[in-house]
Amino acid sequence: MGKDVRRAEPVPTDKPRDTIEMAGWQTLLDRLNFSCGTIDGHFAKRSRRAVSQFQIHRALATTGELDIETRLNLGKPGDAYTDYTLTEEDLLHVIPKPKGFLAMSKVPILDYNDPWEMLAEKTHSTPSFLRELNPGATNMTAGIKLTLPNLEGTRKLPPVSRIVILLSETTLLAFDASNRVVACFPCSIAANKNKVPNQPLTVVNIAPNPDYTFDPKVLVDVATKEGITNKLVLPPGPNNPVGTAWIGLSLQGYGIHGTPEPEDISRTGSHGCFRLANWNASKLVNAVRPGVPVEVVP
Q1: DSSP letter, residue 52
Q2: Are residues 172 and 55 in the same domain?
């Protein structure tokens, strides 16, 4: 059973006093599609950027803090946590981690490798935070009762008319047809600045739950280490190298996609593409269509 977390609605002007209360505000931001990356109770850079963008696009003072006006405009987190019973079906999505790309190509789906990872993805959080919420959960078997962040009521993204990627903020903004920001997602960009596109881009194709082609001519070091000489097709799944969504762009080889490592988003660089947490990439892939412009700005 999880911690005895606060179930009553907090007064919206109360400042969060601990990680559990802070995670409640992160959960509310996530429901509104202003993502802090992962719900973890830590108010760090990604959370400040989500709050700043919320403030900018709600015409509030841009403090980057959960100040009184921001909390009043966000509303009340309400029941930020919910009880959850782990099921047999949940555990069917947990598989041993394949060792290397060759092994990855031989499984039917690149599913979760740990029950905590599966639950963290389900709740847009981190395994470590879920363990903090559930200190007594040591035997993750079907029937165990847990406390999880409550994402019920998450706002569905309307059709996205354009995307802006802010390089300096490692942030992706999605706009609706009225030019209103409807989503703010942390985004990893190319570690090598020479690989950052400097031209107008458009969406050319979308692929929910894509497979991935491992090319030994591209990933030479890995291919040499594993003795791989031919291309491999890796199956879909949350632990696929491009996660659960691919949005192909008009520059060959570039896209916006998910990742099996959501905690690294905006903290580490990519090889050139724009990486989002799987849950944010999946939201976006369901809201865009070919032809949507993508602007990359400093």
Answers
A1: H
A2: no
Boundaries of domain holding 134: 1-155
Q: d(Cα 69, Cα 13) in Å, to the nearest integer?
A: 8
∠46-49-50 over CA atoms, to 5°? 90
Is the dihedral angle over the CA atoms 37, 41, 46, 49 positive or is it negative?
Answer: positive
Positive or negative: CA dihedral 81, 85, 86, 89: negative
Q: Are residues 43 and 106 in the same domain?
A: yes
Residue 4: half-sphere exposure toward Cβ, Cα within 13 Å: 0
Residues 6+ away with beta carbon under 8 Å from 130? 116, 119, 120, 123, 146, 148
Domain CATH for 167 = 2.40.440.10
- Report the 10 Å Cβ neighbour count for 12: 16
Number of domains in the chain: 2
pLDDT at position 8 over 50: no
Within 10 Å of residue 224's Cβ, how many Cβ atoms?
11
pTM score > 0.85 for this model? yes
Q: Each residue of 184-196: pLDDT tens digit? A: 999 999 888 888 8
